[in-house]
Amino acid sequence: MKNDQKKDKYSAVWVSYSSISDYLKCPRAYYLKNIWRNPQTGHKVQIINPQLALGQAVHEVVESLSLLPVDKRLTDSLFEKFERAWKKISGNAGGFSNQATEEAFKNRGLSMLKRIVANPGPIAKLAVKIKEEIPHFWLSEEDGIILCGKIDWLEYLAESDSVHVIDFKTSKSTENPNSLQLPIYQLLVTYCQKRKLAKASYWYLEFSDICEEKTLSDINLSQEQVLKIAKQIKVARQLQRFVCKSQNGCSACLPLEKVFRGEAKLVGVNDFKQDTFVIPDHQFREGEESEIL
Fold this sequence. Notes:
- It is a single chain.
- This protein is α/β, with parallel strands linked by helices.
- The protein has one domain (13-239): Lambda Exonuclease, Chain A, CATH 3.90.320.
- The chain has eight helices and ten strands.
- It has helices at 17-25, 27-34, 50-66, 78-87, 99-118, 181-192, 219-239, 254-260; strands spanning 13-15, 45-47, 136-140, 145-148, 153-157, 162-169, 196-204, 212-214, 265-269, 275-278.
- Strand 9 and strand 10 (275-278) form a beta hairpin.
- The radius of gyration is 19 Å and the shape is globular.
């Protein structure tokens, strides 16, 4: 399966781990995050919270390292880079309701970077960087579906001329074993670069010094599984039918409904040109998290 330049990518349905996750949680939430746009600006929207803000800042630092040669990755202070990244999400911009909460999350981020400096692991080894800004390929040309997504890190394994895909986690909890994240990354790595995928891991920066390797599914099974959901999304888009499974709304769509009704506070625009909002009087609870891809 290869990219076909003759195909119209602009009329295709693009799916990613993030958008598929949104749809599986709630079709209405998928619509509000991936299709609907703020009528005031024409931008898509995002609700920011402390955990998401923390993830953005840490991932910004890590992503900057992937652009550097091995011998230069740790020469500049990661903490100075983090301070610059944190300024973008400080205060309301990161959904922090008070200074104490912000300091607690910021200290968690600093601890994660200290862990990387003390135990660089793959950071101190050769890496592969996919040239496309957003890696993508035709998941199904017949159905007009493209799979896309960013991968945190591709460690280069010289002895086998292969790659090790690594996703950095900033949550206190572990990934759901049924998550489609690694199967989707497996497909992206296979079809968007030439080297064989040897293994895949999560690195839980909150509590682990090393990567946790996970068993990969058969790639044909992964492709079948992802395509099945992508087809459901395409049908929903064609029918314009995005209904929450709960009669009274759910935790995924209800906060976004407040944005939709104009009951949320606009606090900024992120690097993806999304308008970011906070929900007034909403008390953030650990576990209300979004993934950075």
